[in-house]
Amino acid sequence: MRVAVVTGAAGGMGRAITDQLLADGLQVVGVDIDGASLLTMAADREDFTPEAVDLIDPEAITDLFDRVTARFGGVDALVNNAGTCFMSDFPDIPAAELTRQMEINFHSAFHCCQQAVKAMAGRTGVRKIVNISSNGAYNFDVFDPPHYRASKAAMDTLTKDLARRYAREKIAVNSIAPAMTETPLFSVLTEEVLAKAISAMPHGHAMQPDQIAAWVGFLISAAGDVCSGNVIILNQGRDVR
Ligand SMILES: NC(=O)c1ccc[n+]([C@@H]2O[C@H](COP(=O)([O-])OP(=O)(O)OC[C@H]3O[C@@H](n4cnc5c(N)ncnc54)[C@H](O)[C@@H]3O)[C@@H](O)[C@H]2O)c1
Question: How far apart are the C-alpha atoms of 120 and 93, rounded to whole Å?
Fold first, then answer.
C-alpha cells in the first residue's frame, strides 16, 4: 500500500485531501496541530494514522518521519497543506507575525520535504510531493496580505527547485494554487472582504475543498507521473486576461 503524509489534515482542505487519497487506496498519515480533530477523524476512517504535531518545530518533523518510516517502511507521497493567513496591514505587521507566517506556511513545508525525500528513497515508482500554495501569490487585485503571498511564492520556488533536483530520482513535485475555497480559513476575513472576493469568482461561488482534493489525487495517481515543476492555478478562470 502506498503511504501519503498529509499536513493540516484536520482542516477544510486537508480533510478533503485525506478522504480523496483514502478513496484512491493510499495509507494516509494525517498531521495537524489539532490532535482532537485528528482523533475524531480516525474514529471513522480505516488506513488513517493521526499524528498531532506542531509543524513549526523542525525536530518534531524529523521525529514524525522517523515514526512513519519505522511503521510503514517509507513514504510515497507528501502533501504540504498546513497553513494559515495572518491579516495585519503591511505597515503594522509585527515582526513575530511575519516570522510565524513564514514558519507555518513555508518552513514547515521545507522541513517536511527534507525529511520526505529521505523517506522516499528506495520506494518504487514515481514519488509525489504536492505543495498547497495560493492564487494570492499571483493575483495582486485580491485581499491577500504581503507576508502570506511571500510565503506561498517561496513555496512555489521550492517546488521548482526540488522538481529539477529530484527529477532523475523520480520524485515529482508540483504546487496547486487555489483561489477562494470554502474552508474554516474564511473566518480570517471580514464579511465585506469575503463577499467581495467571492463575487469576483466567475462561477459566482467559492470552490469546494473536494474540488481541490481531486487535483491532488490526480497528481498522486499514475497520471501525475509525468508532471513535475508546475504551479497549477485553480480559480474558475478568474484571472485570465
Ligand atoms: N481556503 C482558501 O480559500 C485557500 C486558498 C488558497 C490557499 N489555501 C491554502 O490551503 C491550505 C489549507 O487551508 P484551509 O483553507 O483548509 O484552512 P484550514 O484553517 O481549514 O486548515 C489549515 C489546517 O492547518 C493546521 N495548522 C495550522 N498551523 C499548524 C501547525 N503549526 N502545525 C500543524 N498544523 C497546523 C490547522 O490546525 C488546520 O487544521 C493552506 O495552506 C492555505 O493557505 C486556502
Answer: 38
